[in-house]
Amino acid sequence: MEPDSLLVLLSGVSLLIFVVIALVVLQLILPNRDGEYRPLLNSVFNSGDVDRNFLNDEESLMQLAEEFDYGTLSPEEQRAFLEGEEFLNNNPPNPEHVRGRSYTREDELLIKDCGINAFEFEQEKEILAARYIVEDRTEVNFLNNEALYSTATAVLNHSLPSKNRSPDTIYFEVKIFEFPEDSPNAHFALGLVTKPYPSTFRLPGYNNFSLAYESTGNLKINKPFPTPLQQHRGEQSQFNAQVLPPLSQSDIVGFGYMVSSGTIFITRNGKKIMDVMKGCYLDMFPAIGCFSCNAKFQANFGQMGFVWIEANVRKYGFFSTGDRRLTGQRGLAFLPEYGNSTLQKDKLLGKGDDLPPEYPEHEYDFFGRRVVEGTSAQLQSTKKYEQSEYEDKD
């Protein structure tokens, strides 16, 4: 085949692939035959459960592909976007998982018995090829995630415990223990997601429904663009809108959720930065995601003191002794308040006044004979003396 013919053939194939991808994107974004927009968000939740600001409206979705130059993305990034939308269509969110209803009876019994220790990040199913390891329930160590385009997200096993709380706010923090800042494409995102979520190939904030604080300072709310690589094109990158301060090693990011108003807010290194949204009553799961790098994170759900002082004073951890009861208290709320006046008449606790017990003044042996008082050496010498006297009499 002549070189000119081969060049024309390759150009035609490339153009055909681009047209197919463009048609798929337009099919996801443009209206259907009935004149109604295709529900990318799978509008299965009641309007009172999700703030409209948390939803991608049709106009913004149409602008995303143009604004972020979808056609210039790498094939891997395009495939990740399409697979994410396919995952959402095949695995829509459960409309019943709002306002703490994702907890089953078994979950509540487990949390009642184990308390805060019942919360842990889920380990990848393929443990031999896992890109991260969960240590001590709350530490996430990304070990095999340095390959280009490699994306993995660790999600907590239970959602934020929003039911039956006396403090109106739930709060947790994530510390960045290790992060290779010298790597050009190293990227991570900390945030909240709903389940099911494509955690094996998407970061928090990139798919519905989720939000994230990215290492570059971007605030992501259900936005597949800009991609991590678009954000790492240097200082001249027009896609890196730093809404928040960039993150680095040793930073501590906190997420708070006000149950009554559905408000989500963010803190950084002990200072509150901003309220992200209001009116969100979805059951959200803490999530930590990494892109093309190895890093280490530790989450604090209240098992230790928070950097944000207000969370300690007002007891914003996952559980506290002030939580209200629902057919019995759950977790740490089940521990007795020993200073409570209602426990003053408790017989078992009242036995503490009798301790230590009154021991007898003298010590007696097995036969009831009184043991000679003194040190061990004196007792041994006395015993030898009595034995020698007994032998002399014989």
From TrEMBL:
<keyword id="KW-0812">Transmembrane</keyword>
<keyword id="KW-1133">Transmembrane helix</keyword>
<dbReference type="InterPro" id="IPR013320">
    <property type="entry name" value="ConA-like_dom_sf"/>
</dbReference>
<feature type="transmembrane region" description="Helical">
    <location>
        <begin position="6"/>
        <end position="30"/>
    </location>
</feature>
<dbReference type="InterPro" id="IPR043136">
    <property type="entry name" value="B30.2/SPRY_sf"/>
</dbReference>
<dbReference type="GO" id="GO:0016020">
    <property type="term" value="C:membrane"/>
</dbReference>
<dbReference type="InterPro" id="IPR001870">
    <property type="entry name" value="B30.2/SPRY"/>
</dbReference>
<protein>
    <recommendedName>
        <fullName>B30.2/SPRY domain-containing protein</fullName>
    </recommendedName>
</protein>
<feature type="domain" description="B30.2/SPRY">
    <location>
        <begin position="98"/>
        <end position="306"/>
    </location>
</feature>
<dbReference type="InterPro" id="IPR003877">
    <property type="entry name" value="SPRY_dom"/>
</dbReference>
<keyword id="KW-0472">Membrane</keyword>
<dbReference type="Pfam" id="PF00622">
    <property type="entry name" value="SPRY"/>
</dbReference>
<dbReference type="InterPro" id="IPR035780">
    <property type="entry name" value="SPRY_Ssh4-like"/>
</dbReference>
